[in-house]
Amino acid sequence: MQRQGRKRNTKNLSMGKVTNSFVALLLISSLLLAPYLSISEAADNSVPIVSGLSWTFYKTSCPKLESIIRTQLKKVFDNDIGQAAGLLRLHFHDCFVQGCDGSVLLDGSASGPGEQQAPPNLSLRAKAFEIINDLRNRVEKACGRVVSCSDIVALAARDSVYL
């Protein structure tokens, strides 16, 4: 009888040790990570931007911008979730070579083909271009020509990941 009691006590002691060890590890980890978390928060607020640019420009010039894009993309993704990958890939192809400038959206002209016809971009989904054009039309209807095409592509890519 006494052996069973001792086994139970040993089991309880080892569970207690595991719990105490876990709590200690959690406490030490949080103490070690706390400075990094506060640094990253401070860094977000103190990132220098180019004179004339603002983090909140669209909040005043086109306050419904993010809502317009997110609402329309929810409808698109409810119909075909695969379009999310197409929009993300479109953004990647726009940004990869010369930065995120929306140039992948440009059609060709008399001087030559546009980026859409460049060999690496031929496999991009045609529907992704249609979605961006639809978003651009909706944004222009609500806000005028304030929002750049590259920002629409970037917001669509962000929401493709988020939604």
From TrEMBL:
Binding site for Ca(2+): D94, V97, G99, D101, S103, E115
Pfam family, one: peroxidase
PROSITE patterns: PEROXIDASE_2, PEROXIDASE_4
InterPro entries referenced in this protein's UniProt entry, alphabetically: Haem_peroxidase (IPR002016), Haem_peroxidase_sf (IPR010255), Peroxidase_pln (IPR000823), Peroxidases_AS (IPR019794)
Cofactor: how bound: Binds 2 calcium ions per subunit.
Function noted in UniProt: Removal of H(2)O(2), oxidation of toxic reductants, biosynthesis and degradation of lignin, suberization, auxin catabolism, response to environmental stresses such as wounding, pathogen attack and oxidative stress. These functions might be dependent on each isozyme/isoform in each plant tissue.
PANTHER family found in the cross-reference section: PEROXIDASE 25-RELATED (PTHR31235)
UniProt name for this protein: peroxidase
Higher taxonomy: Eukaryota, Viridiplantae, Streptophyta, Embryophyta, Tracheophyta
